[in-house]
């Protein structure tokens, strides 16, 4: 008999978890061995249960202030923490976040797959099988965003370094420079320098335009 695929299901909404659990439980090859409702709980459950696949939502509040400046996206930080300690971890992102910069940052963090919550049930099952075998699986719409194009950058955020995107996210959430500097162990002068680079690369002139850009790309909610 083929071994079952052990799954850790991570989503901060119990109703959503219950729905995906019913779908996955209908497949005898899949066994949901644990659930988590936050990024840090996902990290803890991963190392205590050692699942074959983690199905990870992105839009979860982080458990701590985090050094990434992405408080509304605790799933992304959880992916980074898991992969930092276990490079062989197989993480499949399942989220409502369909636009850049999220796919690029998920790939950069080391996830093996990316689906949106609009995907068909059969596609989710297929993605779980593929990822469990060490292969990658990305929805077609996501592939278009992360695949190399004709030389043109597909997202304005691809111009930013990882640190600049972290600071961009903090600024978009309205955090003052002093708070960002303290949280990220930087000097205010360094944060100001990063902010200047961000404005230049994004071709925007002030924080108001920065916030509007973040809202348009679903980085913060209006």
What CATH architecture of the largest domain would you give? 3-Layer(aba) Sandwich
**Rg over C-alpha atoms, rounded to the nearest angstrom:** 18 Å
Structural class: alpha/beta
Order of helices and strands: EHEHEHEHEHEHHHHH
Whole-number total of structural domains: 2
Instruction: From the 3D structure, determine the CATH topology of the largest domain.
Output: Rossmann fold
In the CATH scheme, the class of the largest domain would be Alpha Beta
Strand order of the largest sheet: 2-1-3-4-5-6
Reported for the largest beta sheet, the result is: 6 strands, parallel
Characterization of this structure:
There is one protein chain. With 222 residues, the protein is of the alpha/beta class. It folds into two domains: 5-146, Rossmann fold (3-Layer(aba) Sandwich), CATH 3.40.50; 157-216, Orthogonal Bundle (Arc Repressor Mutant, subunit A). The chain contains ten helices and six strands, in the order E-H-E-H-E-H-E-H-E-H-E-H-H-H-H-H. It has a six-stranded parallel sheet, sandwiched between helices. Helix 7 (162-172) crosses helix 10. It is elongated and about 55 Å long. Mean pLDDT is 84; it is low at 64-72 and 148-153.
Overview features:
10 helices; Arc Repressor Mutant, subunit A; single chain; 47% helix; six-stranded parallel beta sheet; alpha/beta; 2 domains; 222 residues; 6 strands; Rossmann fold
Précis, in short:
The protein is an alpha/beta fold and 222 residues long.
